[in-house]
Structure prediction request, 70 residues.
Amino acid sequence: MPADFNIRKLNGVAQGAYNLYDADKMHGLPVGVQVVGRCLEEEKVLAVMKRVEDALGEERYRLLEVEELE
Prediction:
């Protein structure tokens, strides 16, 4: 966490999420990536997304192991 980080600058929802965050428990969870471009630049957006997918390699579609709740 940056030294100048101030949780009070976050809105209530963000503060609640931050208070529940545990890096060890979150490790390995999937993330979403949205690539956005200007109007009529779809080819550029697709090219950037291809580079992101290539950088992820085999990890891009790895399934997660899920624990069953009792």
Remarks:
- Residues 7-59 form one domain.
- The chain has a mean pLDDT of 83.
- DSSP finds three helices and no strands in the chain.
- The two ends are 35 Å apart (CA to CA).
